[in-house]
Design a protein that fits this description.
single chain, 371 residues, alpha/beta, two-stranded antiparallel ribbon, 11% strand
């Protein structure tokens, strides 16, 4: 094979303003060459491509996933070039290597890509990422709302102002808040600002949730979002979160691979005849994992098709409905069995969430998805 036909593996260490570049020829004995740093403008990328294409070898680019997103992957792909994005946590590193620089990172990426030791991650399309960003924005609003409520409750507790009922922010609770009088004018101002913050965050969450529910109707994966709602505990918001974070569930060959991707499989440290399992790995996507775990709490009750679930099921094929009911029968029974064995409730819920992922995978296989 001539040298001109050998692949050139290009490692990129991408930052906000600079990109460190290194390349390695396909020949294992060839030394990895560092080209230094370039800018992040389109003209800088084009100049690098022209320089590397002059070597007469096919180019394969690779860089780590990070805060800069996938713009570089999309640009290189549009140019007809091969580009992979890898997860930083899956890059092999020597335990004794305590020196980290942009140059060394680029060289390492090029060398490991040449040896085949890197695993590419799923890169969403622009439309898929838009739904994911909207879902995460709504999730951030929920977190901000919870923190605002905690601050208000803590302030009232310091003033020994107590609500006799259940503070669930219903109409009666809000009327009581309107009658609260603090000891001093300064504290009254603080109280009113806390109340206002809660109201603003609640309105923000409602706006984002409404936009999410409207935008998802035109999404290519909306049929899958509707179908996985056959599972008890996965309403529209939970289903959108799961599918927006993971993408097409059928890209995993088996449900076990999906469980592993979501970090729901037990960690293990075995040696010789001793086998020791620990908590779940918590690898992969935490947003999707949280949606499943929250939905798994619904299976602590006996199997039942509620009114809300029935409304979701009416729009779905019989095959999907059958999978949803099979999931209920199994997971409700599984919850009771694990609880009877003395398992902690959190362990039980995570075990249910793990099996929910498998049923979601089975449902997704029945739904045709546009590419």
């Amino acid at each position: 094979m001539g040298e001109s036909s050998k692949t050139l593996f290009v490692g990129l260490d991408v930052h906000k303003d600079t990109i460190a570049v290194a390349y390695a020829l396909e020949d294992r004995g060839a030394e990895v060459v560092s080209l230094g740093a370039i800018g992040t403008r389109q003209c800088d990328i084009d100049k690098l491509i022209r320089k590397l294409e002059a070597k007469g070898a096919p180019l394969v680019f690779v860089y780590e996933a990070g805060p800069c997103g996938y713009w570089l992957h999309r640009y290189l792909t549009r140019r007809g070039l091969s580009c992979s994005v890898v997860a930083p946590s899956l890059i092999p590193r020597k335990p004794g290597d305590r020196v980290k620089t942009d140059r060394r990172d680029a060289v390492t990426l090029a060398r490991l890509m040449r040896s085949g030791d890197l695993t590419s991650i799923y890169v969403p399309t622009v439309a898929d990422e838009a739904i994911r960003d909207l879902s995460r924005g709504r999730e951030d609003a929920v977190g901000d709302l919870k923190r605002s409520k905690v601050r208000l409750k803590a302030f009232l507790l310091r003033q020994d102002i107590r609500y006799e009922g259940r503070a669930n922010w219903n109409a009666a609770h809000l009327r009581w808040l309107a009658r609260v009088v603090c000891p001093t004018p300064a504290q009254q101002i603080v109280f009113q600002e806390y109340v206002r913050a809660v109201s603003e965050q609640a309105e923000r969450r409602q706006r984002l949730e409404g936009e999410l529910h409207e935008a998802v109707k035109g999404w290519r994966l909306y049929p899958v979002v509707e179908a996985v709602q056959a599972l008890r505990g996965l309403d529209l918001t939970g289903a959108v979160t799961l599918i927006a974070e993971v993408g097409d569930l059928t890209r995993f060959d088996t449900p076990r691979k999906l469980m592993s991707y979501l970090g729901l499989t037990p960690s293990e440290y075995s040696s010789g005849a001793h086998r020791r399992q620990g908590g779940i790995t918590k690898a992969g996507n935490g947003h999707a994992r949280r949606a499943l775990v929250e939905g798994a709490w619904a299976y602590r009750y006996p199997a039942k098709v509620s009114r809300h679930l029935q409304l979701r099921l009416e729009k779905l094929p019989n095959e999907v409905q059958a999978i949803g009911w099979k999931a209920q029968l199994r997971l409700c029974k599984r919850y009771r069995q694990l609880s009877a064995r003395g398992k902690h409730v959190n362990q039980v819920v995570v075990a249910i969430a793990r099996e929910m992922a498998a049923f979601a995978w089975a449902i997704a296989r029945t739904v045709p998805v546009a590419s």
